[in-house]
Amino acid sequence: METLRRSLSRWKRYHIKVHLADEDLLIPLTVKPTDKVMDLRAQLVREGITSWKKTFYYNARQLGEEETVKEAKIQNGSVLLLVSHK
Q1: What H or E segment, with its residue span, contains residue 54?
Q2: Which of 4, 42, 51, 74 is the most exposed place for a label (fewest CB within 10 A)?
Q3: Are 51 and 45 in contact (CB under 8 A)?
Q4: What pTM was computed for the model?
């Protein structure tokens, strides 16, 4: 049963949003539990949004670059905040 659960989790997808505080935009993204914050940055770049020199926050906590979606406890429908370094 555990093997089945692990194999199914690789197909799991979360639909989240990233709030760009500087531009007042809400960008939808589809992520996997194994995606890291740097993968989210790459998705934003593909959408034409630069996220370098900006920090991701979730539940008032800064996310590390190597932290996965699962480790950060991000759920389906969550909203991440992306803030510029000032």
Answers
A1: strand 54-58
A2: 4
A3: yes
A4: 0.84
